[in-house]
Specification:
The complex is a heterodimer of chains A (about 350) and B (about 475).
Chain A: H1 2-25, H2 27-30, H3 36-45, E1 56-60, H4 62-67, E2 77-79, H5 87-99, E3 106-110, H6 113-117, H7 124-128, H8 134-144, H9 154-157, H10 166-176, H11 178-190, H12 195-210, H13 213-226, H14 255-270, E4 274-277, E5 282-283, H15 284-287, H16 292-308, E6 313-314, E7 319-320, H17 333-347
Chain B: H1 6-21, H2 24-40, H3 46-66, H4 70-104, H5 122-138, H6 147-155, H7 157-160, H8 168-176, H9 183-216, H10 224-255, H11 273-279, H12 282-291, H13 306-323, H14 327-345, H15 347-356, H16 364-387, H17 391-403, H18 410-415, H19 421-442, H20 455-472
Helix pairs in contact in B: 1-2, 2-6, 3-4, 3-5, 3-6, 4-5, 6-8, 9-10, 9-19, 9-20, 10-16, 10-17, 13-14, 14-16
The chains are: A alpha/beta (about 350), B mainly alpha (about 475).
Chain lengths: ~350, ~475
C-alpha cells in the first residue's frame, strides 16, 4: 500500500512539475493572442522611466486598442489599452505604472459600455495569467465587500454543481460566499489547477494545427511595437448587430465599476494627472438603439463626478458608419484611421 | 457520477484510502454506502427503485430455496423487475407503436406519452438480479442470506451503471473473502483506468462529434465514401466508449481487490460475425446465451435446426431492444441475427466455393485480414441503424451512400472534415495505437505489457500517457452511451 501510494504520488509529481513550470514561464505560448497586449503592456511597467515615459497614455479595452493609433496622432501618445480590460484592471495597472516612476501628464480612459455596465469586474485571465497579484486581489476583495458581488467563480466550482449533496448547497454557497470561492479559485490558478487554464492550454495546442499561433503572435507584437501599442482586433467586415449585453435604455453603471472609476480618478488627481474620458464611437446600427434616457443618465453621472474632479473631461459618445467596423464593436483599418484623425483633431490641435 | 469526470477522481481515491484503512468487517457497509452514494449522484430518487428491486429479489430468492412452489417466487421476481424496466424504459415506445397502429387502422385515438425519467443503469442491474434469481431457481447457487452483501451485489458501484454484468456466483464470494491490498493488482487497475480514459475521452468523445457532423452534413462536404466509413466510425465510437467504461470499471474494482469479468476480447480482430459478437460485450452475450437462447428447445446436435435459428434471431432482436426502445435498435439486432444465421446456413456452400476456387493457396494471414475487414464492414453497416435517430433517417442515409458515392483522393477526403480535421486525425491515430496494442496483446507479445518493460521506458510511458490524456482529452464531454441502454 505504502509503495503504491508513494509511486502514485511520484507520478503525479512528475506530471505536475513540468506543468507548473510551464504555467509560470510559458504564458506567452499558451495565452490566447488577445492577451498578448496584456503581456506586452505589463512588461512596459518595468521599462526604465528615462527611456519610456510618454506624456499621454490611453488606458482602456479592446475597442481603444484597435481604434487609437498613436503613430497617426502624436509622438506624445502611447496606447496601453488591452482586450477585456475592465475598470478594476485599469486601476491596478495605473497604480503599478505610476509607482514605477512614470509621469504621464494626461490619461485617456476609454472603455466600452459593456465594461461600465458589466458585472465581470475582471476576467478569469486577469488572475489566471498572474496580472493581478495576491496583494491586489485581497485589496480588491476588501474594497468590494458589501457591494453587489459580480465575480462569479463558477468556472471551477461548477464541477460540484450537480454533485450530490453539493448540488443542494451550491446555490447558497455561490450566493453567500463568493468572496471565499473567489479566493479559492485564485489559488487554484496560482497552483495551475484551475479548469480554465487546462482549457486554454488544450485549445492552444489544438489551434496550432489550424494556424501558426507563434507566427501570428510575433506579428501582433511587431505591430504593437511599431504602432505604439495599437493592434487590430479584426480585419474583416462582419455582421453588425447590437451588443446583446449592453443596456441601451439606461446608463446603469455597475457599483463595482463606479467604485473603481472613482478610485482611478482619485489616484490620477493625487498624481496631478489630467483625466479624459473618451468613448470609441459605436457603429451606426448599435447607435440607433440608445435611448435618450441613457444619455441623460450618463451626462448626469459625469456631471456629479465633475464636482469632485473639476479637471475631468468627458467626450460625448458618437457613431460611425458600419463600413468602419470589423465586428459589432471593434473598428477595422478604415475606422482606425478615421477615429485616430478625429482624436488628433480633438486633443492635439496644432 | 461518471467515470470521465473529475468528481469520480476526487471520490475514488478518497474511498480507496478509506476502504483499505478499515478492517474487513467494515468494508461491506462502506462499499454499500459508497455505491448508494455513487448512484444517488445521478439522481437520489432512483435509489428507491434499486432498493425496491433488491428487496424483492432478496425476499423471492430466500423464499424460493425453502418453498415447494419455487416457480411462484420466480414469477414474482421476474414480473417485478421486468415491469419496472418496461415502465421506465419501454412504456413510451409501446405507446408510440400503439398510436401508430391506431392511426394505420384509421382509429382516431391516441394515448399520451408519459415521458418518464429513465433511471440510469436499470437495464444492467435488472439483468444482473434476474440472473441471480434464475441461478437460485435452477439451484446453481444458494440464496444469499446477508441482505447487505446481496444489496452490494446489485449495486457495486464500479459496475452498477453500465456493467460488466456479473454473476452472483462470481461476485458475492469475493465480498465474503478477507482481502489484502495487492500492489500488482492496484497497478494493473490504475493502468486499466488510464487506458479506459484514453479510449473514452480522446477517441470516443471526438468520434461522436464527427459522426454527428456527417449525419447532419451541414456544408454538404461529405460524400458517399464518408457515409460508407461512418459505420466503421460508429463501431469504433461505441467500442471506445463502452470498452473504455468497462476498463475503468474493471480497473477500479481491481484496485479494491475485486475481479470483474472481461467485457471485450479484441472484437475488431474477429474473422466472422459470430466471433465478433462473442467478443463484444461478452457479459451481455453470455447472459442472453444462458437465460434466453438455451430456453429454446432445439436439437443441440443439429446446427441448422430451425428452432436454433429462430433462437438466434430472437436473442439478437431482444438484445437490440435491450439497447434502446426504438425500431432502429431492433432492426440493428435482427440484422446481426440474420448475419449469424446466414453464416451457419452458408457454411457448406462456402467450403465448396473455397475448394473450387482453390482458396487454400491463399496465405492464411491474407484470408484472415480479408475476413476481419468484411466482418467489420458488416457490423459497421448495421451500426448505421443503431445510431440513427429514426428508421427513415437510416434509409435516407443508405440512399445517400449509394447516390453520392465517388472515389476521391485521400486529401479531399480528409479536407471534407473541415474544422474537425484535427480531431479526426487525433482520433484515428489514437485508435490505431489502441488496436496495435490490442493486436500485440492478442498475440501475447511481451511489448504489449507495459509492466514488463525496463524502468527507464516504463515510467516515461506512464507520464506520457497521463499527460496525453490530460492534453488531448476532448473538451466537450459526452456521457457514456451505455448509461442510457
Amino acid at each position: 500500500m505504502k509503495k503504491f501510494l508513494l509511486k502514485s504520488t511520484f507520478l503525479i509529481f512528475c506530471l505536475y512539475l513540468p506543468w507548473i513550470t510551464f504555467i509560470h514561464t510559458g504564458r506567452y505560448y499558451y495565452a490566447p493572442d488577445d492577451y498578448l497586449a496584456w503581456n506586452y503592456k505589463h512588461d512596459i511597467i518595468d521599462r526604465d522611466s528615462s527611456k519610456f515615459n510618454p506624456k499621454d497614455i490611453i488606458i482602456g479595452d479592446s475597442l481603444a486598442l484597435a481604434a487609437v493609433n498613436p503613430t497617426l496622432i502624436s509622438t506624445d501618445l502611447y496606447n496601453l489599452a488591452m482586450s477585456g480590460f475592465t475598470l478594476v484592471d485599469s486601476y491596478y495597472f495605473l497604480k503599478k505604472y505610476l509607482e514605477s516612476g512614470k509621469t504621464p501628464k494626461r490619461v485617456f480612459l476609454s472603455h466600452g459600455m459593456t465594461h461600465w455596465q458589466g458585472s465581470d469586474a475582471f476576467s478569469g485571465q486577469t488572475i489566471g495569467y498572474g496580472f493581478l497579484k495576491t496583494k491586489d486581489f485581497n485589496h480588491f476583495l476588501e474594497s468590494t465587500s458589501g457591494l453587489d458581488f459580480f465575480y462569479s467563480p463558477e468556472e471551477s466550482f461548477s464541477l460540484f454543481k450537480k454533485w450530490f449533496p453539493f448540488n443542494y448547497i451550491y446555490p447558497y454557497v455561490v450566493k453567500n460566499h463568493k468572496s471565499t470561492l473567489a479566493k479559492v479559485e485564485y489559488y487554484l490558478f496560482k497552483l495551475g489547477v484551475a479548469p480554465l487554464l487546462f482549457n486554454h492550454i488544450k485549445t492552444i495546442i489544438l489551434d496550432f494545427y489550424e494556424y501558426d499561433q507563434l507566427k501570428r503572435k510575433k506579428e501582433i507584437i511587431v505591430r504593437m511595437e511599431s504602432m505604439k501599442g495599437q493592434h487590430f482586433f479584426d480585419f474583416n467586415n462582419t455582421v453588425n448587430l447590437p451588443n446583446p449585453i449592453t443596456n441601451y435604455d439606461n446608463w446603469a453603471i455597475h457599483p463595482v465599476n463606479d467604485l473603481y472609476f472613482k478610485k482611478i480618478l482619485a489616484l490620477l488627481k493625487e498624481n496631478k494627472i489630467q483625466t479624459i474620458i473618451e468613448f470609441v464611437p459605436n457603429n451606426y446600427v448599435t447607435w440607433k438603439n440608445f435611448k435618450p434616457t441613457f444619455f441623460k443618465e450618463m451626462d448626469s453621472y459625469f456631471l456629479d463626478i465633475s464636482y469632485s474632479y473639476p479637471n475631468l473631461i468627458v467626450s460625448k459618445s458618437t457613431s460611425m458608419p458600419i463600413e468602419n467596423y470589423g465586428d459589432m464593436d471593434h473598428v477595422n483599418e478604415i475606422g482606425q484611421s478615421v477615429f485616430s484623425e478625429l482624436f488628433k483633431a480633438k486633443y492635439y490641435k496644432p | 457520477m461518471s467515470f470521465d469526470t473529475l468528481n469520480y477522481y476526487l471520490f475514488f481515491p478518497f474511498f480507496f484510502l478509506l476502504y483499505w484503512a478499515f478492517p474487513h468487517k467494515w468494508r461491506l457497509p462502506l462499499m454499500l454506502g459508497a455505491s448508494y452514494y455513487f448512484y444517488s449522484c445521478v439522481k437520489p430518487i432512483y435509489l428507491v427503485l434499486i432498493i425496491f428491486s433488491t428487496l424483492v429479489d432478496y425476499f423471492c430468492s430466500n423464499r424460493m430455496e425453502h418453498s415447494l412452489n419455487k416457480k411462484k417466487y420466480l414469477w414474482v421476481s421476474l414480473l417485478t423487475n421486468l415491469s419496472l424496466l418496461s415502465i421506465f424504459k419501454y412504456l413510451d415506445f409501446f405507446i408510440r407503436t400503439l398510436n401508430y397502429l391506431f392511426l394505420s387502422f384509421g382509429i382516431n385515438f391516441s394515448i399520451p406519452q408519459q415521458n418518464l425519467d429513465f433511471p440510469i443503469g436499470i437495464s444492467f442491474y435488472t439483468l444482473q438480479t434476474l440472473s441471480y434469481t434464475f441461478d437460485v431457481y435452477r439451484g446453481t447457487i444458494k440464496a444469499e442470506k446477508n441482505i447487505f452483501r446481496f444489496s452490494l451485489f446489485v449495486c457495486f458501484f464500479p459496475q452498477l451503471v453500465a456493467g460488466p454484468l456479473e454473476r452472483a456466483g462470481k461476485l458475492i464470494p469475493q465480498f465474503k473473502k478477507e482481502l489484502k491490498f495487492n500492489y500488482d493488482k492496484a497497478v494493473d487497475g490504475s493502468l486499466l483506468i488510464i487506458w479506459g480514459l484514453l479510449k473514452k475521452t480522446v477517441v470516443s468523445d471526438r468520434l461522436i462529434i464527427i459522426i454527428n457532423d456527417i449525419f447532419e452534413n451541414p456544408n454538404n462536404s461529405y460524400s458517399g465514401i464518408h457515409f460508407l466509413l461512418t459505420g466503421l466510425m460508429i463501431s469504433a465510437k461505441f467500442y471506445c466508449d463502452f470498452s473504455g467504461y468497462s476498463d475503468i470499471a474493471i480497473g477500479s474494482a481491481k484496485i479494491l481487490g475485486i475481479n470483474l469479468s472481461k467485457n471485450f476480447d479484441f472484437p475488431f480482430l474477429s474473422t466472422n460475425i459470430t466471433k465478433f459478437w462473442r467478443r463484444w460485450h461478452t457479459t451481455l452475450s453470455r447472459w442472453f446465451h444462458d437465460y434466453v437462447y438455451l430456453l429454446f428447445p432445439f436439437d443441440k446436435h443439429n446446427r441448422i435446426d430451425p428452432k436454433r435459428l429462430l433462437a438466434i434471431l430472437v436473442v439478437f432482436a431482444l438484445s437490440g431492444l435491450w439497447h434502446g426502445p426504438a425500431w432502429t435498435f431492433i432492426i440493428w439486432g435482427s440484422i446481426n441475427g440474420l448475419y449469424c444465421i446466414l453464416l451457419i446456413l452458408s457454411q457448406d456452400l462456402r467450403y465448396k466455393l473455397a475448394s473450387l476456387l482453390h482458396f487454400h493457396r491463399i496465405p492464411s494471414f491474407i484470408k484472415a485480414t480479408l475476413s476481419v475487414l468484411l466482418t467489420n464492414l458488416l457490423v459497421g453497416f448495421s451500426m448505421i441503424f443503431f445510431m440513427s435517430p429514426k428508421l427513415s433517417f437510416s434509409i435516407q442515409f443508405f440512399k445517400n451512400m449509394w447516390s453520392e458515392f465517388a472515389f476521391i483522393s485521400l486529401s479531399s477526403m480528409v479536407d471534407a472534415f473541415g474544422f474537425l480535421k484535427f480531431d479526426m486525425t487525433i482520433a484515428f491515430w489514437t485508435l490505431l495505437f489502441i488496436e496495435t496494442v490490442n493486436l500485440a496483446k492478442y498475440n501475447n507479445l511481451k511489448i504489449a505489457n507495459i509492466r514488463e518493460m525496463p524502468l527507464l521506458v516504463r515510467w516515461p510511458l506512464y507520464i506520457t500517457s497521463v499527460g496525453f490524456f490530460i492534453l488531448f482529452s476532448f473538451k466537450t464531454k459526452s456521457s457514456f452511451s451505455y448509461f442510457y441502454y
